[in-house]
Amino acid sequence: MYxxxxxHKTVLAAEKMMxxxxxxxxxLYDNKDELVAVHAPxxxxxxxxxxxxxxxxxxxxxxLDDGDIESAIKKWSTxxxxxxxxxxxxxxxxxxxxxxxxxxxxxDHFIQEKKDKARKRYQLTEADLDYFVFTGEAANTTYQVGDxxxxxxxxxxxxxxISHVENALIQGALSMPVKKFYICYPKx
Length: 188
Prior knowledge:
- By secondary structure, the protein is an alpha+beta fold.
- The chain has one domain: Growth Hormone, Chain: A (Up-down Bundle), CATH 1.20.1250.30.
- It has helices at 2-5, 9-30, 42-47, 55-63, 66-76, 82-92, 108-122, 168-175; strands spanning 98-102, 134-141, 151-153, 159-161, 177-185.
- The chain has a three-stranded antiparallel sheet. A two-stranded antiparallel ribbon has the order 3-4.
- Strand 3 and strand 4 form a beta hairpin.
- The two termini are 30 Å apart.
């Protein structure tokens, strides 16, 4: 069920788009773009955060919530930077990128085809193209012995922890990490 809910391709596309938005905002902050400031707790992580999660940084991080991120993305949807503005507007309007999942990495020519289409559609530079077409890996281990407790009841009424069941199929399937490769790109 984990793959169907948390790593569903729509959820994965939305999450990765949000990551790309934050990466672009950070890039613009680093290049002295004052229009990216949202005058909220999120600014700390662009302006003052030194990459070390000390007590102050952790306290500030814990004060962030979905509303802070959504508010920032709303503001950035009107930003003059075409990458930040387009990504933010797309996410707000639920025009999510298409996300494809498969068991092996994507062919270079397939990735290049998607990049060529995005470059033409959005008039992107090579440097900005990775915000619109990107690949990666998503992994999930179904069951980790010691972290969780799944109990099974046998037909005779005995109950035992799933990792103690004498079934090679269960043992192999539950403990093996499942890795899928993804590509996200604009739909049209």
